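From: lab user (bench 3)
To: helpdesk
Subject: output format question, protein + 3,4-dihydroxyphenylalanine

Hello, I'm new to running complex predictions and I'm not sure whether the block I got back is the full result or only part of it. Here's what I submitted:
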Amino acid sequence: MMDIFEQVNAVIAEMEAAAPDSKAALEQFRIRYLGTKNIIKPLFAEIGKVPVERKKAFGQLVNAAKIAAETKFATLQAALETASEVETTRIDLTAPPIGLPVGSRHPVSIVMNRIVDIFRRIGYTVAEEREIEDDWHNFTAMNTPPDHPARDMQDTFYLKNSTEMLLRTHTSSVQARTMTRQKPPIRIIAPGRVYRNETISARSHCQFHQVEGLYIDENVSFADLKQTLLYFAKEMYGATKIRLRPSFFPFTEPSAEMDVYWGLKNETDHRITKGTGWLEILGCGMVDPQVLENCGIDSEKYSGFAFGMGIERQAMLQYGISDIRLLFENDTRFLKQFAAAL
Ligand code: DAH
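Helpdesk reply: Thanks, we reran it on our side. This is the complete output you should expect:
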């Protein structure tokens, strides 16, 4: 028969060899070595039967077996808990990706890009310039005399304590910037933001966008202007007809306003064209020779045309937006509706 000491050692050996690797196996371990009916417990009862001279050593051995079981259990339990934490936070490489919300272009950008593209296709290059402009490029060079009402503080935002620096009131300032820097032929399309000291309402805003066009070369005529604008109206609106009405701008002579034939297909057409079928789109004209001279271009040799249009109005027409303020509020519920647009 196995010596009682050997019995304890066998239990210790067996306990130390055990390697529970799951919660269920660890529970079995606990029941076997630490539970109410554990296999170490009966060994304590043996202490009384051991001869006196060996009693102490046997007691210590059984006690050591119990402590060893407790220590091993605590270590295994801690290890399994960390393992299960790792398990739950592990990255599942097969999971479908979380979709990132994709933004949409602003309706003003959509319309501006379309206009720019239409002119790029016929050889115009994009010119972008400063929004803080000096009086000369915005007004003087563009033939706008000092007593012109546009120069009034009521209409123009001047920089603090300045009568010289202002927020450009139109993209026509890009004409002056380009012509003083570049020799003809010049063929530019200039999109950008402009500012006017206006009361904000459903129809007007103190900041908006324009696109300016300028073409300067030898022998440029009014017929070239008309043909270019007809091409634009066809591409932009699918229009079949345009008309040019005489108008006035300080920087063009003669000046005109271009209307496109929008049609009268439905009630909205009637409303926006005021029952005429025609829609006013832009201002244009032959660049005034004085403007060419102001910018250092020989007006005997060169001629050209220019045009300019507001973007917000076009975006509003295109998308049936009734209040210009919606275009500047950046309400995502409004902007999201343009996600499908180009
Ligand atoms: N600058 C004008 C405005 O802000 C628009 C304009 C009209 C531009 C005629 C032009 C032009 O280049 O020829 O109302």
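A quick orientation on your result: The pocket of 3,4-dihydroxyphenylalanine is lined by residues 170, 172, 212, 249, 252, 283-285, 306-308 (CB under 6 Å). Let us know if anything else is unclear.
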